[in-house]
Design brief:
8-stranded mixed β-sheet; zinc; Guanine_deaminase; binds xanthine; 22% strand; EC 3.5.4.3; Amidohydro-rel; guanine deaminase activity
Length: 450
């Protein structure tokens, strides 16, 4: 066997669909995609007739080939750039209350329960399983302030095999006593958490790229004192880490923030002034941004997670994604469970479309743009565009094998359907039942029954 053939773990033959730019989806029909033993895409061959693809296997044994039928296609896995793991336990309830009241009455009392790591495992096991079932191969998770429970989230993600950024949340002011840290304990626990994840990653072989990365996670400026924000900015530099938080979600939140940080000119500059706005920052929402704030995001190369469902549910407003794209800001989609009621990026795709039409019907987001946001856009926001997001040789194979003709799925296929209409039906009508297989770093994820 040639060295190429022995380096290959899996080959897909059939239709491959991915974004090649924000404006363009490529439909590769009769494609052959080789995944190597490290989970990387080793080679892609286009337009090979069905009766000839075997001649192009380059010595790879046919038993390694996943042969797709006409109702199946492979797409890149979805990226959820903003989701709260503990809030999965009450996903779907409590909508209709604006942000700050929603945090006080529903979210904070619930998150306090995560001082119990066993309870955390119970909720996190389901939250991660549901996210994977929905085809999310990469996610940026908020946990809670609790160190042990956040470690539990890491364990669950490692067991289930998702690519993830995981953040222990920081809160040391304007938070109830039952969910409040001191500056010192918040920094110390964050450091312990980072060291915990880094120690796990250090045990992996040199050939294996870690799937889980710690992420600095001040809840939002309101819940952190300036000295805590400064210390978190220093930790991000010391360990070279990404950062996630909330920004300009709700008008009331912006007023409160500016009153707490009179030395900063805008909400966005609060984070910049404390070393928390970098090319690795992921800012959720960005609904009510001044032009200078967008410009600051651009100057710092920070990313945005657009969370349309949450923005409707808890009445925050409608973000201007068209403007973000025109400025070439990095933007992806977030489900924002449980402000959002669904951990499916397909739902985020649809709600983002509704949001853009409601904002500006003549200039709304088009399908290629939305699909890009769901995949490549999210990869850029996570600063992983060299690793995931579409099918390019050298990237890691994170993907969904979609089947549009599964019994009991919501998609119905007719004779007149083409691969393009099947894909579009999946985007607008499909759900997790159509996600026949999910792959992360080339490995098929065991999708649990839920
Ligand atoms: O949608 C949101 N969910 C949250 O949990 C949160 N905390 C601060 N700001 C927030 N926004």
């Amino acid at each position: 066997m040639s060295s190429f053939a022995s380096s290959i773990a899996k080959v897909f033959y059939g239709t491959l669909i991915h974004s090649v730019s924000v404006k363009e989806i490529e439909y590769i029909s009769n494609g052959l995609l080789f995944v190597d033993v490290h989970g990387r895409i080793a080679k892609i061959v286009r337009d090979l007739p069905r009766d000839q693809f075997r001649d192009s296997l380059d010595g790879v044994h046919e038993s390694k080939v996943v042969l797709l039928n006409d109702d199946q296609f492979v797409i890149p896995g979805f990226v959820d750039s903003h989701i709260h793991a503990p809030q999965y336990a009450y996903c779907g309830i409590g909508h209709d209350i604006p942000l700050l009241e929603w945090l006080d009455t529903l979210t904070f009392p619930h998150e306090a329960k995560f001082k119990d790591a066993a309870y955390a495992r119970q909720v996190y096991s389901k939250a991660v399983a549901r996210s994977l079932r929905n085809g999310t191969t990469s996610a940026c998770w908020f946990a809670t302030i609790h160190l042990d429970a956040t470690k539990e989230l890491v364990k669950v993600i490692e067991e289930q095999g998702q690519r993830a950024y995981v953040g222990k949340v920081n809160m040391n002011q304007n938070s109830p006593d039952f969910l409040k840290e001191t500056t010192q304990s918040s920094v110390a626990d964050t450091r312990s958490f980072i060291e915990y994840v880094n120690a796990i990653n250090a045990t992996l072989g040199l050939d294996t790229k870690p799937l889980v990365t710690p992420i600095i996670t001040p809840r939002f400026a309101i819940s952190c004192t300036p000295d805590l924000l400064t210390e978190l900015g220093k930790l991000a530099v010391e360990f070279d880490l990404p950062i996630q938080t909330h920004l300009c979600e709700n008008l009331n939140e912006i007023d409160v923030t500016l009153s707490l940080f009179p030395g900063s000119t805008t909400y966005t500059s609060v984070y910049a002034d404390h070393g928390l706005l970098t090319h690795r920052s992921i800012m959720a929402h960005c609904v009510h941004m001044k032009d200078e704030e967008f410009q600051l995001m651009k100057d710092k190369r920070a990313g945005i997670s657009h969370c349309a469902s949450s923005n409707f549910n808890i009445k925050s407003g409608m973000a201007n994604v068209r403007k973000m794209l025109e400025m070439d800001l990095k933007v992806g989609l977030g489900t924002d469970v449980a402000g959002g009621f669904s951990s499916s990026i397909l739902d985020a795709f649809r709600t983002s479309r509704t949001c853009s039409i409601a904002r500006s019907p003549d200039d709304s987001l088009l399908i290629p743009e939305l699909f890009y946001l769901a995949t490549m856009g999210g990869a850029r926001v996570m600063e992983l565009a060299d690793t995931i997001g579409n099918f390019e040789v050298g990237k890691e194979f994170d993907a969904i094998l979609v089947n549009t003709s599964v019994r009991h799925s919501p998609v119905d296929i007719f004779e007149h359907d083409t691969i393009r209409t099947k894909f579009e039906k999946y985007l607008f009508v499909g759900d997790d039942r159509n996600n026949e297989k999910v792959y992360v770093q080339g490995k098929e994820v065991r999708l649990p029954d839920l």
